[in-house]
Design brief:
Length: 334
């Protein structure tokens, strides 16, 4: 399936991205020409989504290598690594790029590795979608959260790829998408992306999730992941844990959909996942307009950790991993 937009586009001497901060009202593209540009794009959430920021960081290393200064490129890798703490794909991609940089500082080989990371993700997204689509009946109501689509990856997405592939199979899919406060990835990005690509999507308030499950027959829930640990615990956008609890209460299958590059082999469980907390203004303001009292305490964690007992399965490119996750992740993925 071909998307109606390009999230990341390598142009040879720069990388072009769609500025996700401006969606859905404006479709603006940014040309990033330096690793510093890439760092800021990730940090400011002009681009987001675990696979996407990993791919973009790889291209940031490629841009750095064009200057011909190996030591500077190694420093730039460290800088890019510090851009955001939770999504494991960022660290996976930079580890691969660093290995190439240190083994053979050849600009062409470094660029080739970045393109390879991008192409691999594109193929994996297709496979994830196929595996997930097979789980759905011919007519299905589904649920997701945040944005785990083409805007978050180098291909057609992770969780949203399931809906795209189901549509290709002729299945009739209806998707419910919560707004996903405070950055509104559901309202601004998922609703925009699914609608643009011909998927029947209904946007709801975050607090309406329980109501929808109680009053609609939801067939399955598909969400993305920013980091999966070896026991199946996983971090995803804040609100995913709420959705998992609701899904389990109503006995609806709950899947996370992610490439194996999201699995952190060095982390045994979710207790060790670093959780990013962002600027309080994301909660106290909307488009620069204050909506909360001044001098109020604010916390803005942007990820939560869903424990493996709430998870039906992990859909990765190597298959669908079921319980016991601590055994089957090793068996299927590594």
């Amino acid at each position: 399936m071909s998307m109606e937009f390009k999230t990341i586009d390598w142009k040879g001497d720069k990388v072009r991205i769609i500025d996700q901060r401006e969606l859905p009202l404006k479709e603006i593209y940014l040309d990033l020409k330096t690793p510093e540009d890439v760092y800021y794009a990730i940090k400011s959430m002009a681009i987001r989504g675990a696979p996407a920021i990993g791919i973009l960081a790889a291209y940031g290393v490629a841009l750095s290598s064009m200057k011909g200064d190996k030591e500077k490129t190694i420093k730039d890798i460290k800088m890019l690594r510090s851009s955001r703490p939770t999504a494991y794909n960022l660290f996976y991609a930079l580890e691969r790029m660093e290995k190439v940089v240190k083994e053979n500082f050849d600009k062409e080989k470094i660029i080739e590795e970045a393109i390879k990371i991008h192409e691999e993700d594109r193929r994996i997204c297709d496979e994830l979608g196929k595996l997930g689509a097979e789980l759905l009946p011919d007519e299905a109501k589904c649920f997701t959260i945040c944005n785990a689509g083409a805007l978050a990856t180098g291909g057609i997405g992770t969780a949203l790829a399931v809906f795209y592939k189901a549509k290709e199979l002729g299945k009739r899919i209806k998707v419910f998408a919560p707004e996903t406060r405070p950055f509104l990835q559901g309202a601004r990005l998922t609703a925009w992306e699914l609608n643009k690509n011909g998927i029947d999507v209904t946007l709801i308030a975050d607090n309406a999730m329980g109501f929808i499950f109680e009053n609609e027959k939801i067939d399955a829930v598909f969400v993305g992941a920013d980091r999966i640990t070896m026991n199946g615990d996983f971090a995803n956008k804040i609100g995913t844990l709420n959705l998992a609890i609701i899904s389990n209460y109503f006995k609806v299958p709950f899947y996370t959909v992610a490439p194996t590059t999201t699995i952190d082999r060095n982390m045994k469980d979710g207790k060790s996942i670093p959780i990013e907390e962002r600027d309080e203004k994301e909660i106290t303001e909307i488009k620069g307009i204050r909506i909360a009292p001044y001098n109020i305490n604010v916390r803005n964690p942007v990820f939560d950790v869903t424990p493996n007992e709430l998870l039906t399965g992990i859909i990765c490119e190597k298959g669908i991993i079921k319980k016991p996750f601590n055994e089957n992740i090793k068996k299927i993925c590594f």
